[in-house]
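User: Once you have settled down, look closely at the record that follows, taking as long as you need, and be ready to discuss the fold:
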Amino acid sequence: MTTRLHPIMFAGTGSDVGKSIVAAAFCRIFRQDGYNPAPFKAQNMALNSYVTPDGLEIGRAQAVQAEAAGIPCHTDMNPLLLKPNSDHTSQVVLHGRPIGNKDAYDYWRQPIKPISPKSPTPYLDFRQEVHAAFDRLAARYNPIVMEGAGSIAEINLRERDLVNMSMAQHAKADVILVADIDRGGVFASVYGSIMLQTPEDRSLIKGIIVNKFRGDMRLFDEGRQMMEELCGIPVLGVIPYYKDIYIDEEDSVSLQWKRRQLAEGKVNVAVVLLKHLSNFTDFDMLERDPRVNLFYTSNTSDLQEADIIILPGTKSTLDDLLELRRNGCAQAILRAHRNGKMVVGICGGYQMLGQTVSDPQGIEGNIATLPGLGLLPIHTTMTAEKTTRQVTFQFDGQECQGYEIHQGVSDTGQAILQTVHCIGTYIHGFLDNRPVIDHLLKDFIRQGHGQEAIDLRDFKEEQYNKLADHVRRHVDMDAIYQILTDHD
């Protein structure tokens, strides 16, 4: 029988310090060590989401972490998901189902408790909802690998915090502070993050992990000692930056590091860089295919020179469709298609490739209807109800898998529609399937563009194991286990 471990929370000195990846690594490490871990993030804000086996929506990061833990994902792993619609508003998804849109100011200022039990429209008690989700998860798994959000030092939001130290207090979790040394200022960010906590919250912080170190590790030996003396908390690991491990990214922060240009000797796949692009993990497997140079662009000449053009998913189909016409990308895509180039549309991109997109109820905004690019014989109407489900489909006679997350109904009812040099689909993960990739690249394969596509499942397992090995080498796991079993 395995020892019962305390919950562990990876909190951050800021956004994009690597909390999600570190949490995924520990999900795999605990699984390798004979435990039954599960991930948890009370509240997530991300454009990338995933569908659970029962057809509900959660943040992509928690789905990845569940995969690393070797278990099916569940909404209890991310009970509250905020999906930005604009700079100021987000769709609120509670327990996998959208409950409406919220202005950021209103969301953070709304009462946590209901105004009155007798009120006809009391506010939801989000704190109670996320605590209950954690409790259900903790009763089934050991340990719970928790992830914080952004910085734990946003003291102006402390009273409304649902995901960082207040959640750690409820869970009685041991908190490990993750800092990004690559961005600079690591001593100030670590020290400030700890010192700005209340004494009660500070007592939960049991260790520090310095992430994304570049160069000779020995150069930080003195810095490690200075950090421990300054903060009074042990540095449990210094994790080097890596380039050869591929784990799905959570949100669009990483898009700024994606390739932006054509390359010779490769199949050039251009993903149209939409303003509201979402679920960019749809292209990870293509990006890692040795035959492919996948890049993101809104440059019209690059679109016309690419071998394959992909219109991705979007959180605002009509707004992005209007922008495609304004910036000339729509015309460039049509010219490329006339010249025999393959055009692929996924989710919102599929809708844009049709004849019309209409929004009579104003679900997305003020645009009532727009003509699509006209490459597919579909008409789409936006609806309040969201479709979320995992799907199995046949492609070139082989069974494939993916998932749907979309608002809007297309009149043909087809999840996949093909015409000459054009494919549209509502299925995210469509391009994760080897038959689909081979179909798209078959003409280029005949031209001698190298190896075959990699197997997704084997590839992911290899990456999770490589990540776990990388973190084990640079983190004091004995100290971690001591912290998680200490009863003092």
About this structure: The mean pLDDT is 90. The longest helix spans residues 456-474. The radius of gyration is 23 Å. Residues 6 and 155 are 26 Å apart (CA to CA).
